[in-house]
Amino acid sequence: MSAWTIPNLLRAYRTGALSPRDVCMEIVEESRRLRKWNIWTQPPSMAMIEPHLEQLKREETDSKPLWGVPFAIKDNIDVADMLTTAACPTFAYTAAQHAGVVELLIANGAIPIGKTNLDQFATGLVGMRSPYGETHNAWRSDLISGGSSSGSAVAVAMGLVPFALGTDTAGSGRVPAALNGVVGYKPPIGAWSTAGVVPACKSLDCVSVFTRSLHDAQLIDHLLRNQPLSFAHIGPTEVLVPREPLDWFGPYASDFQRAWERSIDAVAAQGFVVREIELAPFHEATAMLYDGPWVAERWASLGDFVTCHADDIWPVTKEILRSGQNALASDAFRAIHRLEELRRWVRDVVTEHTVLLMPTVGGTYSRDAVREDPIAKNRDLGRYTHHCNLLDLAAIAVPAGQVKDGIPFGVTLFVPAERFEVLVFAASSMLSINMTDDCCYGRGDKVLVAVCGQHMRGLALNHQLLDLRAKYRETVNTVPHYRLYALATEPVRPGLVRHETDGVAIEIELWEMSLASLGALTASVRYPLAIGSIELADGRQVPGFTCVSGQIPGAHDISYCGGFRRWLELRGAESTKKNMEL
Fold first, then answer.
1. Looking at residue 243, what DSSP letter applies?
2. NCBIfam families of this UniProt entry (predicted)?
3. Is the pTM of the predicted complex or chain greater than 0.85?
């Protein structure tokens, strides 16, 4: 699946290289292959898309800024004649009309492609609290995707759509952006319509957008505010960063810390003045969201439904929502008054020529770890996001490199609501990101390639991948339809052959490289090896090293080992045993 930005896709339409129907059919097919990722509550289907394709036939290609551009919609946002479930099937209703933001995007030529998975009722930052399944991370399926806009972020990161709508009340449009290596833009409260959006915390809710480039985020913002696109903004000269040590967590805690330190160094290298500020006021605002009266606002929106359908609510979600039942009005007013003081403090600190920079998240977790402690680990993820809407800030989360094992790292820029138009320009200039190019870290023209032999980590030919600047991503298994043979080569190399009837699952490694590097690798492959399509256990199909079928002279079957590395270990052990016997 090609990972398009909006300008590149429109260019392909204009040249006749692609049609909207081609793209939509590919999305439908790719979504089927990725079904185990649990991206969708209502997957793309040509039946749903067809009326929009028919409408495009009556319009000129350049007549609208999003002509033929497919987009995904978080399933707490209405699309006419589709179910809105908020990840709760009992709550589901058929929307009579489009949400305000969806209506505007369709009017500008975009094609709604499907409804995406979310933490139920947009309550969560993990992407796991849904009866439609746990959304897998786009980079490593054992890690959390982040939430609540999990499916929307992963759909963009996996290249299914150029952009997707989410919502953001406490970080739901930024946490999954960081964990999947895409851009997540959250406008100021009220800048985009929330008509037709299932409320989470109505006074704080925002619709957000995930994109692959800063340009696309800015384009969507201007279209949803009905403003002409302009890049002429005066950016900040000073960057504010936290003074006190930050909290890092999870298996990559130290790697995230180092990535944050590199980000600050990169900002300073661009000539910005970096100044430290205290975080205590931000932490105080953060505590108000779930330890203060705002959780009562969630109960006000959903309490009657939760009371009547308690068995249909995700247990953790129900626990959080019910915590708002007994809030006192006096507590609410005290919090409102204190919050106004904090907002004034922020505007005194984040002034006209400054921008606030924080890590989007302080780490990540495996899905297994979150299941063991769902509330505390969810709270960890919101440490640097929860304050945003309470303090009336606009924010953009952007990729800022990667950490160990290729896991994305991201940062977020914040400004007061009235200065939101500087965010994209600031992100571009501070982090040296070209606004019009794909800034989804490591994606762009990259492809995953499967290796099953001497090219694996630490083995004899691994240097060839490293020379091509390939990066290891993960170790996975094929579907159980392959046999593995040891070939009579020096060094010994395996041959992976497809066997539908008596195959087994074979362990392989996935490496990411540019398309140009894949071409160079392919040119070096010699008979009986070849580069072909390999089917993975999770349903993906990726290019990788295969072997011609039929009898292979001098080869012997090593499929019983389940992988080449295991066979090498067993062969080494046998050799050692023989030497000892001698």
1. S
2. allophanate_hyd, PRK08186.1
3. no
